[in-house]
Amino acid sequence: MGYLDNREIASIIWLTLFVAFSMRSESVRKAMLGLINSFCKRNIIVPFGLMVFYFGLMIVVLHYIGYWNFVMFKDSILWFGLTGVPTAVNAITNEESGVLRSTFTRALKLTILYEFLVNFYTFSLAGELVLIPLVSLVTMLEIYSRKDTKYEAVGKLMAGFQFIFGLILLGHLALNVFRSYKYLWGVGVLKAFFLGPVLTTSFMPFFYGLIVYSCYNSLFVRLNIGYRKSDQLKKLAKRHLFRYCLLSIPRLKRANNMGVYNIMQIRDEADVQRMVEAYKGTSVKHGRNLSGGDYGR
What we know:
The protein is mainly alpha-helical. It folds into 2 domains: 6-206, no CATH class; 224-285. It has 12 helices and no strands. It has helices at residues 6-22, 26-39, 42-64, 73-93, 99-107, 111-120, 125-145, 152-179, 187-223, 231-245, 249-255, 269-285. Helix 4 packs antiparallel against helix 5 (99-107). The chain is globular. The model is unreliable at 283-297 (pLDDT under 50).
C-alpha cells in the first residue's frame, strides 16, 4: 500500500487533465490566484501550519512505538488531505455545541471499511480510467437532478446506474476478498486498516485546540469591529470572556451566538457586565450548572 494503485494513477491523470484544461480560462486563473491569496492569510496559514506540524509529530510518535513505517507514507498523506483537513474545516465551521463529538464520529464512519476495501482492490488502469469519469458524471447528474422536480426521471435513472456500479464494485470486492482472505489478516494490512482511526483519535486534542482557537479568534475579531472601543475596554472584555469560557467549547459556542449577546455593541464597562449576565442567563436556560466563581451562579 506504499505505492500508487491503478485508481490513484487514473485519478491523478484525470485531475491533471482537468486542471490543465481549466487553467486555459483567464477567469479560472484569476479565481485560483484569489484562492491562493485567501489561503495565505495569517488566520488560515497559522492553523494549517500547526496542523502539519502536529501531523508530523504524530507520525514520529507512531514510528517510534513501532506502529508506523514508510510503507504507510502514502496512506498517511491521503488521510491528511482527505480526512484530516476536511474534518478540521468542519470542526471550525460547525456551530453546534457538541461539535467535538460530531467531529469524531464524522471521521470514524463505517464507510472507512468500505472505502478501504474497495480502494484496496482496484481494476486495471484502463478500467479505472473509464470508471472514474463515468461514476463522477453519474454522481454529479444525480445530485444536480435533485434541484428541480422536472429532472426527477433523470435522477432515478442516475440512481439506477449508481446501484449497478455499486453491485459491480461489491462483486469485484467480494471476489478478491475470497481469493486472498488470508492476506487480509496480515499484521501489515491490519495496521494499515486501523491507520485512519489511529490518526483520527490522535488528532482529537489538536481538533479540540483548533475549535477553541477558532472560537476565541471569532470573538476577538467581532470585538474589534462595531462601536469604537478603547484598548482598556477590549482587555476587560477579553478577560471576562476568558474567565467565563476558559477551554469549554459549549461556552465558547454560546459566546459566539450573536442571538445571546452581540459583543460588537460593547461601548463601556456596563456593557461588558451585561455581556457576562447574558451568557450566564443562557447557561441557566440550558439547565447547565456552570459553577466556578461569579460565572457559575
